[in-house]
Amino acid sequence: MQWKGRRQSDNVEDARGQSGPAFGGGGGGLGLLMTIGRIFGIKGILAAVVLGGVLWKLGVITPSMLFGGSSPAGLTGQADISPREQETFDFVKTVLADTEDVWTTEFKRAGKRYELPAMTVYRGRVSTGCGTGSAAMGPFYCPADRKIYIDLAFYDELAQTFKSPGDFAQAYVIAHEVGHHVQQLLGTSDKVAAMRDRPDYNQFSVRLELQADFYAGVWAHHNAKYLEQGDIEEAMRAANAIGDDAIQRKSQGRVVPHSFTHGTSEQRMRWFKKGLQSGRIEDGDTFSIPYQNL
Predict the structure, then answer these.
(1) Are 149 and 120 in contact (CB under 8 A)?
(2) Model confidence over 218-249: pLDDT tens digits?
(3) Structure pTM?
(4) β-strand 140-142 against 125-128: which pairing, if any?
């Protein structure tokens, strides 16, 4: 995929250095002072405050960091960002910019206004409008705050565990999550969420996920001028690897269709390909088709 040197989105928050409160622990700097007081008494607190004052004078910390708040990025993980990770960060910003261009145009064609989503890049755990997110969840979209969340380490798992390397496979993952944002703007997500208590809710979840795959294909259709040989194969390989049946077979040795939430490998590849061939949002109605025909 040709991406270097192109526009990057301004809607990406780098939260990789915000993995936790200053000095560790749930109470921030104040919590640390209280702990020191319990163990070492008032002399320990005074020594900690004096040390904090020295560090403040040296410009290492601020008073807010000592008594609560966040430490500077360099103290919580930003300093150990490798050139490779930074390149991946620049890549996801470019991909998000591409989706902004495509969906702004498509919504305008439909007489609608596209509201740009935000993306938060984090490490380990992150606080979201939908609760606490973790890297174990993989990339995800939170409809409550309309943000996409991604720990870039997921791409290593995509390549190693799911055998789906390549920059376009990575781009497909982002485009799929942006597809959920499109569904939120169109009201589709809310309609499916309202069915959560139904016994056949999983089927509606599958329909929602396959439509997001279709929207990822629509994005790829309109982004074709930046594609290189083998890019589509990368995306199809990723879609194949993260189908419910493939994941269940790999993780538990058997497939349980009634527990599917995202669709089979074959379905995910098919709907991505449909979007790629069509390029029209109107052709992605996964809800009017009999479930067995998806």
Answers:
(1) yes
(2) 999 999 999 988 999 999 999 999 899 998 89
(3) 0.79
(4) unpaired
